Amino acid sequence: MTERWITAFEHLGQWMQTESEVREGMIQYAHARNPWFTRENILIALNSISDCLHPEIMNKWLSAYEIPAREPIRVGAILAGNIPTVGFHDMLCILLSGHKAVVKLSEKDNVLLPALFDRITEFDAGLSACWEWVEVMPEVDAVIATGSNQSRHYFEKYFGKYPHIIRSNRNSVAVLTGDETEEELRDLGRDIFTYFGLGCRNVSAIWVPEGYQFDRLLDALNEYKSVMNHQKYRNNFDYNLATLMINRVPYEGNDCILMLEESNLASRIGTLHVSHYANFADLHDMLEGHSNEIQCVVCHKPIDRLQVVEPGKAQCPGLSDYADGVDTMAFLHQL
Questions:
Q1: Which residue, 29, 131, 146, 259, has most beta carbons within 10 Å?
Q2: In terms of Cα–Cα distance, which of 168, 148, 152 is closest to 160?
Q3: Is there a single domain that holds both residue 145 and residue 220?
Q4: Alpha-carbon gap, residue 317 to 335, rounded angstroms
Q5: 213, 222, 215: which is closest to 186 by C-alpha?
């Protein structure tokens, strides 16, 4: 069954990268249902997925696990909808583990995944029995649920009796040294602005050295000012700017981002939180204190004892870059 799935996902990856009326209709309909899902961002999400669906990449990833021969169980997947197709990886893991996916879609992203899996049935109609879409989660054998910090308590209350992975809010951060190149600063902009900052891999806070001058960073990030053409982003930016001005909160800004001193890692749309450090060598301990809040750390140079991502690569996770650092495949294999 695993090889059958790998073949089906390979075909799906090829379909994602090929222009067609069906693909374009799916994109337009998803955007109509959720204006945050622009065509550009949907294509970024599709390309990120399709890059991982080559057989050699999937086989290398799966080689780290021993998939036992067993009867499939029903694994409930409660998916988020903050960015396009964010729940695809959970479904991929469940299906390649040999289980059945019982999926509760987010109302914010209930177009793309069904459309993609409809394509799989065109390649191999028999696989359609391996997943189902549900409005209310029925009795299952295990649960993978993704939501907010508030929904986490709900999930734990109702699904704690099952083997489970329950995820809540995470954010990503960047560490700047002051000697980044112009290209690296522009690349950092992709980590900030892709998906309008709504993903857990979006940089929402930065650490900078004491005395850091923001001019070069603001100039580089201003190249992304086209985000202001999106009405919802502009509304958020204007509201946050007015709030800062009324409350006389000091900030640095350009035409598309506002930066303010704030220790909270979660920032509002159109804003970036800033913290300062005195010694680069101390960053590990500082960031380790936020480990339960951080999805990934972006930096152009290594940080001792921390795994970092190069600027511009935060939104390009591999198959083994698991949300919250919890190995989904290992969890599924031990069920």
A1: 146
A2: 152
A3: no
A4: 25
A5: 222
